[in-house]
Design a protein that fits this description.
38% helix, three-stranded antiparallel β-sheet, elongated, 252 residues, binds protoporphyrin IX containing FE, 2 domains, alpha+beta, Flavocytochrome B2, Chain A, domain 1
């Protein structure tokens, strides 16, 4: 009897020790991975990045908003003599929008760009994140020598977030007030009209053309409004156009 109790106690203790060790090892491995992942973030100086041009070093690296990507698999676009070789070994973020691929135009400044341009730069960042491997950060305008986002980097991040948000709001507005079709001819002038697909928004209603004023501005665009008698400070009827008409001539 004593033997049986002793054996099962030993067995029980062995099982507890085994599982405890496994659990501790599991958590240790987790901690190790996250520490080593942190260490994997390479920091490049401008001069170091320049070397990743397929010649001094075999890889092709480029930076955008200070994020460094290995684009070696896209050598046909980025290799020596290829169309987009200009981007290699540097951060030429601005050229992703301007399309100026001249060494005299190299700039990584984007804070003064329009919301649409900022969205375009951001889409390129997303493209590289999706199609290529991120290999580190460039010390400079966007990241400090400690690898942390600089004040400028934080500012640009906020500007991009705001630019993406304004696009979402624009999209929502277009769903509510789809743009009209517009045509012009010398005799009749400008005509605006609504269809179930005008403005590229497919819907089950046609709507009536109204002038939709942009907030705080004298500018307006033609919007198709679902309910003809909708009253809003930002909506104005076209002069000389019937309340329920799907088509109006612009007289002023
Ligand atoms: C702001 C202007 C432009 C920028 C910044 C730009 C940038 C780029 C970049 C970086 C790539 C390589 C993408 C990759 O890694 O796969 C690319 C590819 C390409 N670009 Fe442009 N591009 C511009 C304008 C144009 C224009 C105007 C055309 C056409 C007339 C054009 C045609 C192409 C084509 C066809 C490819 C793909 C080539 C292929 O997959 O074989 N790009 N562009």
């Amino acid at each position: 009897m004593f033997q049986k109790v002793f054996v099962s106690s030993v067995l029980f203790a062995a099982i507890v020790i085994y599982f405890n060790t496994a659990i501790i090892q599991y958590f240790q491995s987790f901690v190790k991975t996250s520490v080593s992942q942190d260490k994997q973030v390479n920091l490049f100086t401008k001069d170091e990045l320049k070397l990743y041009n397929g010649i001094d070093k075999p890889q092709l690296y480029l930076a955008i908003l200070g994020k460094v990507f290995d684009v070696s698999t896209g050598a046909s676009h980025y290799g020596n003599g290829a169309t987009y070789n200009f981007f290699i070994g540097r951060d030429a973020s601005r050229s992703f929008v301007t399309g100026k691929f001249d060494v005299n135009d190299v700039s990584d400044q984007v804070a003064d760009l329009t919301a649409e341009e900022l969205r375009s730069v951001n889409h390129w960042v997303q493209f590289y994140n999706k199609d290529y491997k991120r290999v580190g950060k460039l010390i400079g305008r966007y990241y400090g020598a400690d690898g942390k986002l600089s004040r400028y980097g934080k500012e640009v991040k906020k500007l991009i977030q705001a630019a993406e948000l304004s696009k979402d709001n624009e999209d929502l507005e277009k769903l509510k007030y789809p743009p009209c079709n517009v045509e012009w001819d010398a005799q009749r002038g400008t005509r605006v009209w609504c269809t179930e697909k005008s403005g590229g928004i497919s819907r089950d209603w046609v709507g009536v053309p109204r002038q939709l004023y942009l907030p705080g501005s004298q500018d307006y665009r033609c919007a198709c409004v679902k309910i003809a008698n909708e009253v809003s400070a930002s909506l104005k009827q076209y002069d000389g156009c019937d309340d329920n008409s799907h088509s109006c001539f612009v007289t002023s």
